[in-house]
Amino acid sequence: MNERGAVSILAVAAIALTVALGLTATTVGALIVARAAAQTAADAAALAAAPVTFDSFGTERSPAGEASFFAEANGARLVECRCERDDVWRARVVVVTVEVDLAWAPPPFGGVRATAAAEFDPTVWLGSSSATGG
User: Which of 44, 64, 110, 133 has its CB 3.0 to 4.6 Å from that of 70, i.e. a possible disulfide?
Assistant: First the structure.
């Protein structure tokens, strides 16, 4: 029986499997990093936009503009911002969705999205500001 070359076939198969596993691990790792970046950007955007729904806090931007600014500063793009300006003295919740683009991914998998919410209560803000003398 001539089994010459059988080891070469097994070696090629082992190398192919190693390369496939390596690519899969790299892709999964990149997705995890992108997901973390998207969540960080969403959190920052929501936290920045929430107080601007009540007062400008020194910015010329709208709440959505503030959310977009902070999303972009964190490497993401604002997809949606439920953050209308409201001068009523009641608590409000801002919900922001951002997307981090994946340059290496094919079009159907072009980005990773994350959503974050932040609550702002002007009465608490006023209470803490007057308590600190500010």
Answer: 44
